[in-house]
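FIELD: query
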Amino acid sequence: MRRERGPIVQKVSQTDPEYRSAIEEARLRGGQAEHTFGENVLLAQGNSRLEMVSKSRQKFYDLIRDPAILLAIAEEIKTDQALYHELAVLFRTMDYDFDSVMLRLYSRFKKVPDKLYIRILQCHGAVMEKRKEHYHALKERWEGTIKSRFFVLMQKYGVTYRGHVFDDRINQLVFSFFDPLLARMRGAHAHYRRDIDAIENAIFEKNERGERILDHEILHALSGQTIVRRVRRENPYQKSPHEPTSTFGVQRVGLHLFPHLVSRFFWMNEGVTERLARELGGHQEFYYAYQQDMVKALCTKGRIEIPFELFVKAYFERYDTRKPYGKRIRAWDRLRKAINGAYDEGFLIRLDNFITREKDKILLDEQKKRRKEITTKDKIEAEKEVLQTALRLMDTDWRLIKEQ
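FIELD: result
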């Protein structure tokens, strides 16, 4: 008789108490994350600070290669007149000219002593603190309108979303605002982190951009999720008796699936999210244009048209553990059947495989040419290029999108 060794896998509700407890523990473990560039340097002491200053300086220098970041940092420094004058004297600029100070901050950065660099970090931290206060005020104003706007959107697409469920989700979420310099290093100005059920948002000066990003990310957080609990089987030879017996993972957020650690339909999820965000806030500026075009093509280029409403209902569907198997994600099943009917059986998987495969090819070629690590920006540009190709094929004949 074969002994079962793998974990027991169970799907649980988003409100499962053990799952919510695991989220709180994950937040505590991640509580030491840096939210302002250089704050770890400022908190360090002695030899530890000296080592961190050296690493921080290199990161800072890499960041100010971007003219927009260099300008922003120079404007921050100008708010501290004593620091600005010391740098101007160090750089020997005539009449403390702003453009000269800014340009020499980059060209002569290696000559800036550590003490002045630390004061630059302190100045930056002070500016970020003021912006955080501003953003918390922005968030409070945003919270005053989001519920009414959200339910107008739900009514438009015939989605049943309970008021108490919305309130619970807003209360469960953590909103975290962090430094745009860190955002540039991470390759994302905002994202919904499913591992700690939190929205992380870089703090920009323009209110409209902040509200638009909050609208986009809150839709990710309010979209339906499938939560999986993996229960470790008893092992008499276990060496770590204090290891938790259960772990949790998010298998689906909206239309983005994560089966067996593989990402599925990211482009579709972002396309639907951004279209809904534009409708939610009436925003003129928008992102994920090709992802939106791809969803539109999927709706219109098959044998029959697929209503966008089916995508929206599947997007917000919460996995219902109270219902029998086969009826727990009915909206997703209806969307899958509609796509199979408009195209061929399994076409959505074929399309997703095509996008993933071609994107990986572009990134591999890029890595061979540059012999450098692939960045988040590289991945974004590769996906744009592949989606353009896929859109041309869909426009000609969807059957041209092949598995290999």
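FIELD: remark
Residues 39-125 form one domain.
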